[in-house]
């Protein structure tokens, strides 16, 4: 129905998540008819981003710098390392303002059926780093050498697993916990239960079961 | 929260219709993490489309050709001209396969509050063309010259108004009808009423009122 170039554009827009043929058609016509300027900006921004954005060498988050702004922030507590599935999770945690440690972004979750194993999530490098840090620390302890233990260079002492409470997320957390314990590191999992402001009436059974089995004495 | 380039990309994606900050963030991360190839295709397709797509000289639809494939189709009946608001409307009508005439795309509707008048919709050119065609026809009739009256070159005899049944759409249709009648052309409006397969129970009052007032004897 459309001319070849517009058809091609509609087809390309379908690669966006949650965008089908009809929405893509609407987007294409909007961009060409109403907002060619915005479309030009989008071409520029997307082109530059594809070219320059890579992963942070430390935490694997998406960034155009070799090391992201969180990893290069000297004020953050390097003793805490929070493992999350996606960069969006980092944004959500940062927005809550509750956490001052560093992150490790898996960019996925263990899912053998999709061919995603520990290697794809960068886990071997993580465990190697944890093991090295532990060795350095224990050697220093043995030699009773005064090691500078400021926040910025402290080795990881606690791994906080904040993967999603889905089947794959739980499996990923379990796998990481097992491996990290072998490195002699404290491993914790963020709490799951009834969200604040939630009403019991509308909470699903799985969450309620978990909330009961994880109850704490007050 | 994100690095500047990613922030810029998210901001640019917000120009898409129906896409807010949260969806744009999801799209940006999806493109960069999961589908850089699709993102590259999108940059190419959008860049080429902005550069090359313009309006058809006859019907104002979006196309990369000077004259679109409908206007250059010799088999279509030029005696009928259907006025629609957007290229998407043309697609909808073409998909129904019911109409064999030509189109005129307003790319909008009269909306003085947004600064959209007849000029922005290309109406002066349309009326001028209709008037010229009428003059040529009447001169030919007066001189009793045999004018070739095949479909491809026949002057417009009926203007079918298919703008949307909204306040602005109706006002646009009324304005065009007034002007076209002065050119001596038959003007019609597509029927509005209960859609086929619709249930009266769920039809809004306005549509029902219209359906009753426009009833036909059978």
Q: Report the helical percentage of chain A.
A: 40-55%
CA radius of gyration of chain A: 22 Å
> What quaternary form is this?
homodimer
Largest interface: A-B, 56 and 56 residues
Mean pLDDT of chain A: 87
* Low-pLDDT segments, ≥5 res of chain A: 147-151
The number of distinct helices of chain A, counting runs of at least 4 residues, comes to: 7
Q: What is the level-2 CATH architecture name of the largest domain in chain A?
A: 3-Layer(aba) Sandwich
Global shape of chain A:
globular
Beta content of chain A comes to: 5-15%
Which sheet architecture does the biggest sheet of chain A show?
4 strands, parallel
Strand order of the largest sheet of chain A: 4-3-5-6
Task: Please provide the ordered H/E string of secondary-structure elements of chain A.
Answer: HHHEEEHEHEHEH
CATH class of the largest domain in chain A: Alpha Beta
Question: What's the number of structural domains of chain A?
Answer: 2
CATH fold group of the largest domain in chain A: Dna Topoisomerase Vi A Subunit, Chain: A, domain 2
Structural class of the helix and strand makeup of chain A? alpha/beta
Number of strands of chain A: 6
Q: How far is the first residue's CA from the last residue's CA of chain A?
A: 67 Å
